[in-house]
């Protein structure tokens, strides 16, 4: 087959847009193991969870979550990775276009013999510069183009586009993780404030009990055992406060770091106690298939699978001929005005084909196929994990709400029992052991109710995040434009989603 014939066939293949390798097709929910309904009772109506923290009606919580979205260092790293991925896509697209370069030059030639001008060096030597000088001006332009007739370049761009989208969803996943961590630590901080308040309230009652016991001992109504029991109970309650304060300080410090500040920066803001935040009693979860569209980690895994599928085509294209076209134009003149008088140029097109490589290229194809299988398994695993997160959060919320109702009843009963026991002890109708037990039960009920409220709020946060709340799932995160100074990049600006069109 003649060279011209081979070139004609290759050009026809190029114009036909031939791309070897499998075309990516998204898997159906059924193929991923997604059931048609949840196995636990959930509210069927799907809600807009883009700004779920507003549902807690706590302005401090909203302020902290929104501040973390712009100042958190993990989010800043995710933005930087997204920018890197965008530039990789730009570089990949550039490979589809020719590379053009230019050159220019000037040269002066002098004839050092033959008379003309002369000058004397400092040592007395006379140098004849000659009179036959000439100028030379050159100007050149060269271009090269790797055509990729079997689609290796287009598949590379396809993979880069999918990887860029996956990086955007990875950024959204980091954003959701940081938002939930802020809310969780805020709930912990408010819950610990409630427990510290409970301990101090109980400490005040136990101070009164210690005083009453002392009076009764002095009056000879009871032995010193009552006084010692009261003193021991008070000390044990007081000992719990430093531990609670240490945990509270850790939660507040964590909130400071999550919002991009020093650990103690938020202590003045959170110093005034506020109730444990409480969201709506029910949260609409919709149907399981909606998790595939709402969860950024699921969408990132899907785009990673698309990129791995495209890489199979890149590897397969290396088994076929590669076409390269190069050309150049040059001119050479003795004066600038005559720069265009003599122009030369050339054009070359060549095919290269691997003949023997010890099976390396086919091994690369099999390796990419294995990578795609692994990406598919990871995609399925991410989907199943997302469904597990939703159902676990639903059950956690339901059980926390049930515990909250029971602890409310227990607190009412414990409070009444403590009042009766204190009155009876003052009157000498009961012993101090009974009073001590009732006081301990009251403190336990108070802390139990506070913990149940904290658990319910944490479960609500977990459910919001498990459902993919915290970002606008109708948009895809894009890398921000380059800023004037390093370290001042804003958060990515979402843009409307466009249908994913893969190169065929």
Automatic annotation (TrEMBL):
Tagged with keyword Lipid metabolism: no
Locations listed in the record: Cell membrane
A Pfam family this chain is assigned to: OEP
Membrane topology: Lipid-anchor
Record's keyword terms, sorted: Lipoprotein, Membrane, Palmitate, Transmembrane, Transmembrane beta strand
Record protein name field: Efflux transporter outer membrane subunit
Extent of the signal sequence: none
KW Transmembrane (keyword) present: yes
Sequence similarity: Belongs to the outer membrane factor (OMF) (TC 1.B.17) family.
NCBIfam families: outer_NodT
Organism encoding this protein: Sphingomonas aurea
Stretches the record annotates as Disordered: 475-504
Superkingdom per UniProt: Bacteria
